[in-house]
Amino acid sequence: MQTYNSEHGKEAILNYYNMLIGTIKIPYKELDMNTKFGNTHIFEFGNPLAPPLILLHGSSMNSAMWFGDVENFVKDYHVFALDMPGEPGKSSEIQYPFDTSDYSDWLLEVINSLNLDKISLIGLSLGGWLATKFSICNLERVSKLVILCPAGIGSQNHEFKEIALSLLPKGKEGLEELFLKINGSTVIPDIVLNFQKLIAAFFNTRKEEIPLFTDEQLASLNMPVLLFVGGKDILLRSDETAERISRLVKNAEIVVFPEKGHSLVGLSLEILAFLNK
């Protein structure tokens, strides 16, 4: 499947992305790394002598989702926000299969190329799935794991397709209502909503189901784990996610936000309290 439905659409998304990059208020570097999985675009923030922290965004998004949180993270960490391959960012457009080790291998190559040893990982949704998968495959490389509404732990909510199909024919109003539901009825700032609508219009969101981790895989996680889920998540069964982590991961903290949805952002202070213990 093509990543974008047109070159015009790709250009529009990247132009908006560049505008959002221009809103960053702290020093940063943009890096392009050549890997065997293609180009990887990286944002680097903070003191190189501080402990390393990797940020992994969600599906149909890019590193812009972290720009509001980075100002807090850089006080204590050397932060790297990665554009994942196959998503609407500046990395390779190739979409690798979810049922192989490709994405975990990609992340390991990036971390090794950055000369990082042990890292802390934060991932949301698809990024939460990758952060979990990488941690399972590389236990000795992860100091702490933070996952927000992660895929691959609780099953996908198949009612979402019905909700989307009922709203999308309504055009602009239906799309805005869908995003509102995804965000747990939280009002979305226009600058974010407009980006989401642009991506929805021109980016071909992946339709494959992400495979669930086995009980044995989750039980192998031996680092401190922090899980955030939203009670109104219409994409994933957050109750299943919380139950499995609670039952299988020995050193886990679980926070359920009953009134929040799938897009859990703006939690940097809560995350830092966990990372700095």
Keywords:
277 residues, alpha/beta, eight-stranded mixed β-sheet, 10 helices, 8 strands, 36% helix
- Oligomer kind: single chain
Give the N-terminus to C-terminus distance in angstroms. Answer: 44 Å
Number of strands: 8
The dominant shape is: globular
Instruction: Indicate the low-confidence ranges by residue numbers.
Output: none
Could you report the average pLDDT, rounded to the nearest whole number?
A: 93
**What structural class do helix, strand and pairing data support?**
alpha/beta
Radius of gyration: 18 Å
Strand content: 15-25%
Query: What is the makeup of the main sheet?
Result: 8 strands, mixed
Q: What's the number of helices?
A: 10
Please provide a written account of the structure.
The chain is of the alpha/beta class and 277 residues long. It contains 10 helices and 8 strands. It has helices at 7-21, 70-73, 102-113, 126-137, 159-167, 172-182, 190-202, 215-219, 238-248, 268-275; strands spanning 29-35, 38-45, 52-56, 78-82, 119-124, 142-148, 225-230, 252-257.
Brief sketch in words of this structure:
This protein is 36% helix and 18% strand.
